[in-house]
Design brief:
By secondary structure, the protein is of the alpha+beta class. Helix 7 packs across helix 9.
């Protein structure tokens, strides 16, 4: 599902007109675009910090060229790339359907017949990738798109470009779907993709990873040292999945053997359950009403004058309200729009408040932002000023969308909020409990999380009252929000916030 472009988004990448936002991955932002001939495509725009990395650029150029050779019916083909641009980009075919992750979250596990179609399609897609000398290394439910005529594998040819000694290993692979050799930092090959295939099929059949929930360290440990949990699987698939999930790569079947074992008698044109088929139909219908060419600025949230101010405030209010509703933990909270004459994104990026005060004052939480903070914590924007009121108290706050947790390949990215007030905000009201995260770097700080582990709050005393960092993500069947991550963000904020 695409979302409207924001005022700061590009309108064109290479020869492609951008018409919406699809999400964010380890490499950068993903947009929905149209080719000059009118075909819909997915445009992946590389993050600026990666674009400045010489080793990444070298790997990206090699992998993009290799990926363009991948064919087959079950991959989203790479059709173009701009490897020498200031911000390199990669263009793939756009498949109008939900990801496997979105489908299972919305409608539950797939039936056995659908699992066979899914598994055989993914095996054939992996075979096409391996034939070109590539290894996917990040096959997961979010990288599988479901269409009427079978699944499609996306985002192949990216993991190796991200694999550099001076790039973080966390960007390569997804805990719960990584092979033991990946978890241990060893060489990976096609057998690693077969392991991921087994994990994806377990997820499709049960709604969970075979290695449970938890943070990356816990998932890596179970993957290397414990047997996978295969309860609830169709009995006929258990022996095959056990072999796929062997800790020894040489004991796993090849993708050709997997295809032979999983191949259905024939692909049922109605292979997807009714609810998921409806999701595919909705995605297809959405594309029929998208713009077909250049998009006037005044239709994309950038009108001028009084109407522009009103439009911008409406967007900010809607986004904040949606985030509060999705989190389900704010209680009776009212978000307040930016006052007339607010500084917007440009002033936030420069560290100035709407009133022109310098960064680090209790009236302007957005003033802490800088490029280092954006890169370190994978912030997607420069912050939305506002505030919230609860219990009769109104405090200043700033909210950032982040790819540091949640699922960056879908629309379930997380949010950080920083609030300054006379007392602790106590944003978590449902299932509030103390969290033992290490906050020794922030004097007097305390952390709290909720029972479902989808929210975390860190608060500490200041000269003017209290500062509170609050983080939320959508419910995630693969694991909750780790307060350790929020604690690290709070420590970064503490270094720049007023004391």
């Amino acid at each position: 599902m695409s979302h409207p472009l924001t005022p700061g988004d590009p309108r064109r990448v290479g020869p492609y007109h951008l018409v919406g936002r699809l999400g964010r991955g380890g490499m950068g932002q993903v947009f929905l675009g149209r080719s000059q001939g009118g075909r819909l495509v997915a445009v992946k725009l590389v993050n600026p910090e990666l674009a400045e990395d010489t080793e990444f650029r070298r790997r990206f150029a090699l992998e993009a060229e290799a990926a363009r050779r991948v064919g087959g019916f079950y991959t989203a083909q790479v059709v173009d790339a701009g490897v020498d641009e200031d911000q390199p980009w990669l263009v793939t075919a756009y498949i109008p359907g939900p990801s496997l992750q979105q489908a299972v979250r919305a409608h539950g596990p797939l039936p056995c017949a659908a699992l066979r179609v899914l598994g055989s399609g993914l095996a054939e897609g992996l075979a096409a990738i391996h034939k070109c000398g590539l290894v996917h290394r990040d096959l997961k439910p979010a990288n599988v798109i479901l269409a009427d005529d079978g699944p499609r594998v996306i985002d192949f040819g990216i993991a190796r470009a991200l694999d550099s000694e001076h790039l973080t290993a966390s960007a390569i692979g997804t805990p719960g779907f990584m092979s033991p050799e990946q978890c241990l930092g060893r060489e990976t090959g096609p057998a690693s993709d077969v392991f991921a295939l087994g994990c994806v099929l377990v997820y499709a059949a049960t709604g969970r990873s075979p290695y449970g929930q938890g943070n990356a360290v816990a998932l890596h440990y179970r993957t290397v040292h414990e047997a996978p949990d295969l309860t609830g699987l169709p009995a006929e698939l258990v022996p095959f999945l056990e072999s796929c999930l062997s800790t020894a790569p040489e004991r796993r079947p090849s993708v050709a053997e997997a295809l032979e074992l999983l191949a259905p008698d024939g692909t049922d044109p109605e292979w997807l359950p009714p609810g998921v088929s409806e999701m595919v139909r909705e995605r297809r219908e959405e594309t029929k009403v998208l713009p077909t060419g250049e998009i006037p600025a005044d239709t994309l949230g950038a009108p001028s004058g009084r109407d522009g101010t009103r439009w911008a405030r409406r967007i900010a209010l809607s986004a904040a309200a949606c985030a509060a509703l999705a989190a389900g933990v704010w209680g009776a909270v009212t978000w307040l729009g930016e006052p007339d004459g607010g500084g917007g994104a440009d002033s936030a990026a420069s560290g100035a408040s709407p009133s022109g005060k310098p960064a680090g004052n209790p009236d302007d939480p957005c003033g802490i932002i800088d490029n280092g903070l954006i890169q370190k914590h994978q912030l997607v924007d420069t912050g939305s000023r506002g505030g919230h009121s609860g219990g009769g108290t109104t405090v200043a706050s700033c909210r950032w969308q982040t790819a540091e947790f949640g699922d960056p390949d879908t629309d379930t990215e997380g949010f950080y909020t920083l609030a300054y007030g006379p007392g602790p905000v106590e944003a978590i009201t449902d299932g509030r409990r103390s969290d033992p995260v290490d906050l020794s770097g922030i004097p007097g700080a305390k952390a709290y999380s909720n029972a479902t582990e989808t929210a975390c709050e860190v608060a500490w005393p200041t000269s003017f009252g209290h500062a509170t960092v609050f983080a939320t993500e959508a419910d995630n069947v693969l694991g909750g929000l780790d307060c350790e991550i929020v604690g690290r963000f709070a420590e970064s904020v503490y270094a720049r916030a007023p004391k």
